[in-house]
Amino acid sequence: MTDHVTRTRAAYDTVAESYAEVLRDELAASPWDRAMLTTFAEMVGTTGPVGDLGCGPGRLTGYLASLGLDVFGVDLSPGMVAVAKRSHPALRFEVGSLLALDLDDGALAGALAWYSLIHTPPEQLPRVAAELARVLAPGGILLTAFQVGDEPRHLSRAYGHDISLEAYRLPPDGVAELLTEAGFEIEARLVRRPQPQEKTPQAYLLARKLAG
């Protein structure tokens, strides 16, 4: 296990309970988030299973299930997975890493990577993009969201806890290029200004895996 994976897992294990509490109702206050998630759900429809990859406490896994998707969650943090299972007992959650997902090639009709790329060092993002492409079937839909920027940040405290964690703001053009090189076609992109509690613009990219 790489150092950044170990640190990320430890940090999210530490904050899992308070993270889930703080973000419990955030989706209700974000029409842009709901709009992108709903569009993603409509594009995937009933074509196959969907992975919420980096699902945290499962709040978006539950939302996608409410929209009719056959969805399950994967997260690096056992603490987050435990909260997700408790909060959404009817859904499936498992521990796993975006660097090496325990999924067959082409297993998914849709993949959500919601702020789950932001702790991967930029030099390893091509590997993550390739893994997302591997697990999606041709024509499968990917939605990712992230903070806009091009600099790393070290987090020493979050959600009321002391942690040690690197977070990377990402340039939308750079992420789009990575996905294109991994075999995706960008369907849409949205960059919105920050809400009062946010420090930077936020980006959403919707992409389709090309055939062949």
TrEMBL record:
SUPFAM superfamilies: S-adenosyl-L-methionine-dependent methyltransferases
GO molecular function: methyltransferase activity
Highest taxon, organism lineage: Bacteria
Sequence ranges assigned to domain Methyltransferase in this UniProt record: 52-140
GO biological process: methylation
Alphabetical keyword list: Methyltransferase, Transferase
Family annotation (InterPro entries): Methyltransf_25, SAM-dependent_MTases_sf
Protein name: SAM-dependent methyltransferase
Source organism (scientific name): Amycolatopsis magusensis
